[in-house]
């Protein structure tokens, strides 16, 4: 099979793309893949890209926003496409069947390249289609993804090209990826006009980190940098003095930065980061509550449960609908 260099290279030939959208994907993920292609055709004045939306069962796909996305058919409807892109969001473990994974394995050789967006890399990896490749996934899943698939080289980039595979960590990185595809095939000028159409700040460098700063618009960049540092040390929380030293300021100045920017002190903000991370894990994974507590910097389950209840008004077990964990 050809590698992605044959796709990401100058060409006047139309590129035919099948987009497999899974239930509970977001409309923004789908739009980030399709709308840049539509806009590129408009600016080219010709059909540089063709696409079709397919679904696991051929039926309309329910998206997270409550609407249903029409599909042309099931996986068989991808026949003849150059590229297959799997777009997945929440609960991919529940909506992906063994039959779909087997179908993806059988169909893989028909495409010049296969890609995944957001949770799409999970689907590809479960089908064994990322073994021996570099890949990325949404930043919330990086650690779990790397643990689940040790034969995949996992990196925190926005998007990754790896021979005949490509992956993007979310909706906006998917737009970065599509602009890169448009630029390499049709020229930087076309990609720039597409970005301008959406008032998009196009910096389509896949190696940029997915999270350049938690508060990119903050008046003082040290606040954003401090929050980012905290988010990188949830399991073993840093002393606030260490956070202040990293910004080359004193503890009192750090306190003032947080009070001015967030209306709360750095200790409360750090706890909020840890609890929000825990709530995401509670909702999106099946990790035991004890493991979630440790991974979010709590010494034991009881201290985690008390902090969780104070913040969210329910115990961790109640937040999971009473499921044991």
Description:
The protein starts with 14 loop residues before the first strand and ends in a 6-residue tail after the last helix. It folds into 2 domains: 4-197, 3-Layer(aba) Sandwich (Rossmann fold); 221-319, Orthogonal Bundle (Arc Repressor Mutant, subunit A). It has helices at residues 27-44, 92-95, 98-107, 120-126, 142-148, 171-186, 188-197, 221-231, 240-246, 251-262, 266-284, 289-295, 301-312, 316-319, and strands at residues 15-21, 49-54, 61-62, 68-69, 83-88, 113-118, 134-135, 153-154, 159-162, 165-168. Helices cover 44% and strands 13% of the residues. It has 325 residues and is α/β, with parallel strands linked by helices. The chain contains 14 helices and 10 strands. The strands form 3 sheets. It has a 6-stranded mixed β-sheet with strand order 2-1-5-6-10-9, sandwiched between helices. It has a two-stranded antiparallel sheet with strand order 3-4. Strands 7-8 form a two-stranded parallel sheet.
